[in-house]
Amino acid sequence: MATRLERDSLGTKRIPSRAYYGIQTLRAVENFPISGLRLHGGMVRAMALIKKAAAHANAAVGALPRRHASAIARACDEVLRGRFDDQFVVDVYQAGAGTSFNMNVNEVIANRANELLGARRGTYRFLHPNDHVNMAQSTNDTIPTAIRLACLTLLPSFVESIERLEGALRRKARQFDPLVKSGRTHLQDAVPVRLGREFGAYATAVRKAREAIDCSAQALQELNLGGTAVGTGMNAHPRYRRLAIQALRRWTRMPLRPAEDLMERMQSAADFARFSGVLRAYALELIRIANDLRLLSSGPNTGLGEIELPAVQPGSSIMPGKVNPVIAEMVDMVGFQVMGHDATVAYATQAGQLELNVMMPVIAYNLLQSMILLTASSRVFAIRCINGITANRRRCEAHAKRSLALVTALNPHIGYLNAAKVAKDALASGRSIHDLVVERGLLSPAAARRVLDPARLSRGVSSPSL
What we know:
By secondary structure, this protein is mainly alpha-helical.
């Protein structure tokens, strides 16, 4: 392999001639052969936007020649188009704060910009990764800013997938609204409910999770770019911060704003922990809903069998005809993984010391992975599961009529103790509650039919709009 010689403060190394990355990236590759995992491409594109905004601001204040700033901007645009995706080679588990990743980005952009200006890769004749591409910046302000931009960039598709799931659940709520079934608490018979109300409640839970995610994401709009190493803004022009963030706001069309306190933004990763927390809460709701669907569809002959999930693939390699709730199972597994990601973000958040939290790379990886997994699983859950659910009307009605919890409706008429005796006798004899209360003269046949009517009992308080 043809190589070139590059030098840094620690000495020299030979770099593959065709590589756009440089010596500091190669050192990181050699130092951290850990997982084979890379930071999400959203981080690469966010960093490219930051480097472009920095070049724009530095040129505007006269710190960087416009010709050089233009070359950096052109190189950044190519990174944004994905041209150099294979050049971002640093492992997720790398030097603290993300210095290795920052330098990987700096070197790729510097080498491409030098090419555009007529120099060979690795010569840094016109532009240096540290002196020019990283001008007025530090890993300590660019990486947290990139995490925020990457999350905000993924947010619209994430929210759209949640809205799709909410809409699918809401449509099923309307479709199933007339169907009465037995409610269940403690996995035991409870008073009648409508199947549509159950699905409407799922839809409401998903909506509330979406609103919490939207609310928490607003804090990610506050950027500490311009704080450089410790939040003092050392080596940055006084106007640089405002100009760079203005450029990012214009290019992204996001309501980005400078941090209220640059040092606090540098020290604290609490915004990331809070955002990860609402992702975890959404994952918990998805797990709960998926598990309910698995229970409601259990059977087909020996379980609840009140709904049927769409059959999307054979369920067993040995039992012919078996169909499993595979989409709901996938949702569970995604939820468990997101909970693990959140635990990592939480540990990393508390691990900051003094002026810096150095655990940014693992925070970035886990936050973005959670968003990606939840986006895809929410969409698949809606399309390949919720949309195709059908109800077993006969099973729902049978369970509603057989539920011993119907005796709850008798409390105002015959008292709790008498109702409990009826329930006990009904369970022992297998006879209906209706027949027993009529036979014992506790209610007339007409009154018993009215009081014990599952459809009337399921209405209860007025339901929310479906």
